[in-house]
Amino acid sequence: MAKEKEEAAKPHRVLVVDDDAEIIDTVQFALKQKGYEVLIARDGNQGLAMAEKDAPDLVILDMMMPKRSGFLVLEKLKTMGTEVKVIMITANEGSRHKAYAEMLGVHEYIRKPFAMDKLLESVERLLA
Predict the structure, then answer these.
(1) Which residues contact 58 (CB under 8 A, 6 or more apart)?
(2) Maximum distance among all Cα pairs of the chain, rounded to whole angstroms
(3) Tell me, what's the pLDDT at 78?
(4) Which residues are registered as beta bridge partners of 58?
(5) pLDDT value at residue 92
(6) Number of C-alpha atoms within 13 angstroms, CB side, residue 26?
(7) Mean pLDDT, consecutive 10-residue segments, the chain of 128 residues?
(8) d(Cα 121, Cα 104) in Å, to the nearest integer?
(9) Residue 47's closest CA among 63, 61, 64, 30?
(10) What local confidence, expressed as pLDDT, does residue 94 receive?
(11) How far is CA 61 from CA 46, 56, 82, in A?
(12) Taking the complete model, does pTM exceed 0.85, yes or no?
């Protein structure tokens, strides 16, 4: 019984994978204000390693990054069989990219620049 209570009190773990320091700082600050535990990865390879090791509840994933793009991270997450929810953020306007991201199982697709409120609403909805 105590373990169940402990589980309920544990904050949701959110992994932010982005190479833009300003976005990382802003998103991290906003998520911590809402009580989430925030993990940071600055490229796709680091993001994948952390997703595997730290088992986040949600990944906020940039599309265009060094070493491994958001798409390649998504493809790998899918083959790993993780049930992690993913929000992709991107400056890309193309609808083909959005369709491909959705085909890979992305739960939310948000274009940059985005309102922090919109991102936080998506996070809360996906983790509810």
Answers:
(1) 12, 13, 14, 15, 84, 85, 86, 87, 123, 126, 127
(2) 49
(3) 84
(4) 14, 85
(5) 84
(6) 13
(7) 55 96 96 98 95 95 91 88 89 87 93 94 97
(8) 22
(9) 61
(10) 79
(11) 12, 12, 15
(12) yes
Tokens representing residue 23 in the block: 């976005």
Contacts of 116 (CB under 8 A, 6+ apart): 26, 27, 30
Secondary structure of the chain as H, E, C letters: CHHHHHHHHCCCEEEEECCCHHHHHHHHHHHHHCCCEEEEECCHHHHHHHHHHHCCCEEEEECCCCCCCHHHHHHHHHHHCCCCEEEEEECCCCHHHHHHHHHCCCCEEEECCCCHHHHHHHHHHHHC
Output the pLDDT for position 7: 52
Return d(Cα 65, Cα 43) in angstroms, integer.
6
Peptide bond into 113 cis (omega under 30): yes
